[in-house]
C-alpha cells in the first residue's frame, strides 16, 4: 500500500519556537507538497518540491521554508512560529508524470502555536 | 489556470437515500479531475478520478462521477448513503503538465439515521 507518513500528528509550540514537520513517502515519487488546511479556506499550497534539493514556492510560502535532502523525505520548517500558523498541515506526494496521476496525502499534522 | 467550484458547502441526507455533490470546473486544457474524501482528523483519500477515458467513472465505496465537458461539470453521486459517508468531500482539478492542483472549497456531508 502507498504510504505518506507524517511523524507528528499533534504538536503544541510556543510563539517564536522553530518547528519541524517531517514527511516521508515510500513510493519513490519525485514530487512532494506541503499544504495548509483551514476552515473556510480549503487547502492552500505552501511549497512544492520536484526533486531532491529542488523547491518552488506555492501560494502562501511566507513564514515557511522546506528541505528535501533525500527523495523520500520532505520537511516543512517554521523558523519562528506565530499564532496565525496554528493549522492542519498536510503532506502529499505524486509521481513525476503529473497528468492524471493520483496525489497521495498523509494523515495530517495539527499544529497549535500558543 | 484552472479553478473549481463546489456548489454546495453542506449536504444533509438520510441514510439509504441518494447523495449528489456538485462540482464545476474551468480549465483551458483537457484536465484530470478527482474526488477526495476526508474523514475527521484524517488525510485525504482518493475516491475516484477522470483522466480522459470513460466519462462515467466508478470509485470506491459505491461512489461514481460523470464528466460532462459541455457543462464543465464532474458531479459525484452515490445511490444509497451510509452513515460512514459522513465526511468532507473535495473536487480537484489538474491541468496536464501542471504540478499545481486546484481544490474546491469542500462539501460537508451529514448522514441522518
Structure description:
The complex is a heterodimer of chains A (114) and B (113). Chain A has a single domain (4-113), classed as Immunoglobulins (Immunoglobulin-like, Sandwich), CATH 2.60.40.10. Chain A has no helices and eleven strands. Chain A has strands at 4-6, 10-13, 19-25, 31-38, 42-51, 54-57, 65-70, 73-78, 87-94, 104-105, 109-113. In chain A, the strands form two sheets. In chain A, strands 2, 4, 5, 6, 9, 10 and 11 form a seven-stranded mixed beta sheet that branches. Chain A starts with a strand and ends with a strand. The mean pLDDT of chain A is 93. Chain B has a single domain, classed as Sandwich (Immunoglobulin-like), CATH 2.60.40. Chain B has strands at 3-6, 10-14, 19-21, 23-26, 32-38, 44-50, 56-58, 64-68, 73-78, 87-94, 101-103, 107-112. Chain B is globular, with a radius of gyration of 13 Å. The N and C termini of chain B lie far apart (41 Å). The chains are: A mainly beta (114), B mainly beta (113). The interface between A and B is medium-sized, with 25 and 26 residues.
Can you lay out the helices and strands and say which pair or pack?
The complex is a heterodimer of chains A (114) and B (113).
Chain A: E1 4-6, E2 10-13, E3 19-25, E4 31-38, E5 42-51, E6 54-57, E7 65-70, E8 73-78, E9 87-94, E10 104-105, E11 109-113
Parallel strand pairs in A: 2-11
Antiparallel strand pairs in A: 1-3, 3-8, 4-5, 4-9, 5-6, 7-8, 9-10, 9-11
Chain B: E1 3-6, E2 10-14, E3 19-21, E4 23-26, E5 32-38, E6 44-50, E7 56-58, E8 64-68, E9 73-78, E10 87-94, E11 101-103, E12 107-112
Parallel strand pairs in B: 2-12
Antiparallel strand pairs in B: 1-4, 3-9, 5-6, 5-10, 7-8, 8-9, 10-11, 10-12
* Number of structural domains of chain A: 1
Provide the helix percentage of chain A. Answer: under 10%
- How would a textbook summarize the main sheet of chain B? 6 strands, mixed
What's the CATH topology label of chain B? Immunoglobulin-like
Q: How far apart lie the N and C ends of chain A?
A: 37 Å
CATH architecture of chain A, by name, is Sandwich
Mean of all residue-level pLDDT scores of chain A: 93
Unreliable segments of 5+ consecutive residues of chain B: none
Number of DSSP strand runs of chain A: 11
Question: What's the architecture of chain B in CATH terms?
Answer: Sandwich
CATH topology of chain A: Immunoglobulin-like
Mean pLDDT of chain B: 92
Amino acid at each position: 500500500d502507498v504510504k505518506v507518513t507524517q511523524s507528528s500528528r499533534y504538536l503544541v509550540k510556543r510563539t517564536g519556537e522553530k518547528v519541524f514537520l517531517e514527511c516521508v513517502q515510500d513510493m519513490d515519487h519525485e514530487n512532494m507538497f506541503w499544504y495548509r488546511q483551514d476552515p473556510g479556506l480549503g487547502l492552500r499550497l505552501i511549497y512544492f518540491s520536484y526533486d531532491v534539493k529542488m523547491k518552488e514556492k506555492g501560494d502562501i510560502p511566507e513564514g515557511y521554508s522546506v528541505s528535501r535532502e533525500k527523495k523520500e523525505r520532505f520537511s516543512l520548517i517554521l523558523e519562528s512560529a506565530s499564532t496565525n500558523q496554528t493549522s492542519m498541515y498536510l503532506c502529499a506526494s505524486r509521481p513525476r508524470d503529473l497528468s492524471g496521476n493520483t496525489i497521495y496525502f498523509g494523515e495530517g499534522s495539527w499544529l497549535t502555536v500558543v | 489556470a484552472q479553478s473549481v467550484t463546489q456548489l454546495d458547502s453542506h449536504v444533509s441526507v438520510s441514510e439509504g437515500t441518494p447523495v449528489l455533490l456538485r462540482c464545476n470546473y474551468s480549465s483551458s486544457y483537457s484536465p484530470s479531475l478527482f474526488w477526495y474524501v476526508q474523514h475527521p482528523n484524517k488525510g485525504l483519500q482518493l475516491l475516484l478520478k477522470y483522466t480522459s477515458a470513460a466519462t462515467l467513472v466508478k470509485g470506491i465505496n459505491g461512489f461514481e462521477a460523470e464528466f460532462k465537458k459541455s457543462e464543465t461539470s464532474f458531479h459525484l453521486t452515490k445511490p444509497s448513503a451510509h452513515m460512514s459517508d459522513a465526511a468532507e468531500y473535495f473536487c480537484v482539478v489538474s491541468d496536464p503538465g501542471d504540478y499545481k492542483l486546484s481544490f474546491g472549497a469542500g462539501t460537508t456531508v451529514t448522514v441522518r439515521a
